[in-house]
Structure formats: C-alpha cells, structure tokens
Specification:
This protein has 8 helices and 2 strands. By secondary structure, it is mainly α. Strand 1 and strand 2 form a beta hairpin.
Length: 181
C-alpha cells in the first residue's frame, strides 16, 4: 500500500497492518473493488491510495464512472425521447470514432463469456476502461445533438447503448454507476 507517496509499513511482529476496511475508509468501496478486481489474485500489487482517490483520467474507476455520468447528463438534457420516435438509422454513424465505439460495444458479450469461463474479472475491468476511453474520444470529437435530427437520433442510440453496457459491467463487478459526478 502506498499513501502520500510513501509505502505504508506493515509489520506482523509490531502488529502494524492495513485492513480492507482501512483501504475502503481511505478511498471508497468502488475504488477498492475496481482496483482489486483489475489484477489476477496471484499477482503482487501495490495499492496506490492517492490514485484511488484522484478525480482524474488516471484513476480507472473514476474514468469509467465519469463516462457513465457524462452519458446520463446527455440523456437528462434530452428530456423528451423524441429521438426514439424517429426509427434511428445506425447507418448514419460512419465517423471512425462512431464505428470504433460500435465495434467496442459489440465485443461486450464475448468479453463476458471469456471472463466468466476463466473466472477472471480483470478482463471486464480492462474492457470497461477501453469502452470508457472509446466513448470519451467519440464525445470529444462529435456532438451528440446536432441540427440533423436523424444523425442525433442515431447518436442517442449509440450513447444509450454505451450507458447500458457501462452500467451493466459496473453492476456485475459490484461497483456503482453514478448518474452525476
């Protein structure tokens, strides 16, 4: 365990140790779960408390949760589900970032099957970080709501699907999917 840039000294003889409760108190239940599930159980791991509480893109659990919250914010701005009535045409999504996001979403069932078969949840944490990164790149380059209603409707379907996968994946890991951050 590293805290404040210093290794937390642990000594069985002196009775000095860090418990799981300590890690949760110092960070959060979500951070501890995500960080511990991100590694194989038989690998050595240094838990960086400062990284686990950082609210930036370096913190993987924050990055994934922020993607979910950002999508929820987009959906909240579009109060009426007008786009659902347009029978969105996903063929309108042809920008490289849109196509990559769709490909990444399509991998979700395979990732779940592989992780479940191997009993290795770290594959799901890797996938969720990749999905969040892919969404953030898409969001940075493209506005979801544009003048073209048909394109907006297709993009709304894309971000809604991304929200569902993020929420589902986080839920499987026992991690919250906040709607606001």
């Amino acid at each position: 365990v590293v805290r404040g840039g210093e290794e937390v000294k642990i000594s069985k003889r002196a009775g000095s140790y860090v418990t799981l409760r300590d890690l949760i108190d110092w960070t959060s239940k979500d951070a501890v779960r995500f960080f511990l599930l991100s590694r194989k159980p038989d690998t050595e791991y240094t838990f960086d408390v400062d990284l686990a509480v950082a609210q930036n893109n370096d913190n993987p659990v924050y990055y994934v949760q922020y993607a979910h919250a950002r999508i929820c914010s987009i959906l909240a701005k579009v109060r009426l589900n007008w786009w659902k009535r347009l029978a969105p045409d996903l063929r309108r999504l042809n920008a490289p970032e849109e196509l990559l996001l769709m490909r990444t979403l399509s991998q979700y069932p395979i990732v779940l099957q592989l992780c479940a078969a191997a009993l290795e949840p770290q594959g799901l944490t890797v996938y969720l970080r990749k999905l969040a990164e892919t969404f953030h790149v898409f969001y940075t380059k493209h506005r979801v709501i544009v003048e073209d209603d048909a394109l907006s409707a297709a993009r709304m379907v894309l971000v809604t699907a991304t929200r569902h996968v993020l929420a589902n994946g986080l839920g499987i890991l026992g991690i919250s999917a906040p709607t606001r951050m």
